[in-house]
Amino acid sequence: MARRPEHLDLEHATLHAQDAVVLADDDGDHHLIVGAINPAQPLAVLLPLDDSFHIRAEAAMRFQRRLFGRAAGPLPRALTLTPRYRLRLVRMVRALDGQSSGATYREIAGALFDMPSQSATEWKTSPIRAQTIRLVKDAQTMMRGGYLRLLAGR
CA–CA separation, 41 vs 39, rounded Å? Predict the structure, then answer.
């Protein structure tokens, strides 16, 4: 039987905005838009049948477990970032910031990596140079809308 809002475990809920409630969770907070909820009606989840349906369904199951007072469990794998990818994203933002400020690739690399002093010839063939260029280009792609892939779990 579907539950009504008054039967839910909202002990750790906080009002985030005028019509949004945030349920704190150690593995990832849950956000509920409550503006259209009728307290007399059972709650329902509406999920679009799109390419992200599987991620949305997993998130809805976590949310349902949390609302019923059970441990929600970990975030869907598609929504988690590995420590390595998180570091790459941080480097991308820093590289883009450096590039936007007029820094050279060599200056950006010096700020991002602990690299030894290199001659101009060594720098031209350095793997760190290639990595720095990729970081800047990938950051530009993210800035132009590529970040939406992160939200879709890709």
Answer: 6
Helix axis angle, 127-141 to 83-100, nearest 10°: 80
| Boundaries of domain holding 57 | 5-79
Residues 111 and 129 both lie in one domain:
yes
Q: For the residues 134-139, what does the mean pLDDT come to?
A: 96
pLDDT of residue 89: 93
pLDDT of residue 147: 81
Residues whose CB is less than 8 angstroms from the CB of residue 70 and which lie 6 or more positions away in sequence, other chains included: none
pTM over 0.90: no
Please check whether residues 40 and 11 belong to one and the same domain.
yes
Backbone angles phi, psi at 83, to 5 degrees: -55, -35
- Number of domains observed in the structure of the chain: 2
Listed range (8-17, 32-41, 65-74, 101-110) with the worst mean pLDDT:
8-17
Tokens of residue 52, six digits: 């992200």
